[in-house]
Amino acid sequence: MCKAPHQKPLRDRLTGTERLFSDTGYDHADFIVLQMARAFFHSFACPNSQGWMLAQDMAGNPSLDWDGPGVMVKTFRTIRSMQLARKSEFRFSNPTCHHCAQVLTAQERQLMGTIVELRRGRRDRAEAHALILCEGNGIESYLEDASALADAMPKLMALT
What we know:
Blueprint lengths: L18 E2 L7 H18 L6 H8 L8 H18 L17 E2 L1 H14 L3 H11 L6 H13 L8
Antiparallel strand pairs: 1-2
Helix pairs in contact: 1-2, 1-3, 2-3, 3-6, 4-5, 4-6
């Protein structure tokens, strides 16, 4: 959701559950995956926007040291399995607004928390994020797809 016009500092416009991406400690690969997911969500919400094309553009980014198209497909599968498990709406930030894209909603934080913890090899923490995100519904398919996505991304060191 775009909160334009952007006259107030971004940090001053955050709701109680939103966070700035820069405050999360996530890396560039995480941001690209988040933006791909947002592009797909935008396509679901506004089919005529053809937002999925933004995900395709990001997948072709030559600066990434990974299989961009493969990551894009795995991102789609992950969010699709999450959608099938969730019963309520998924709030996401506008991927086409520079300011909005810097803000993570509560649901996006759980999505990325699952992926980042899997990248760090901490499945138990990823499962906690998945349970919250999927509202206590079956998380097996979602975790399987998120694991495949995390495996396709650069590895992260586990934090102590």
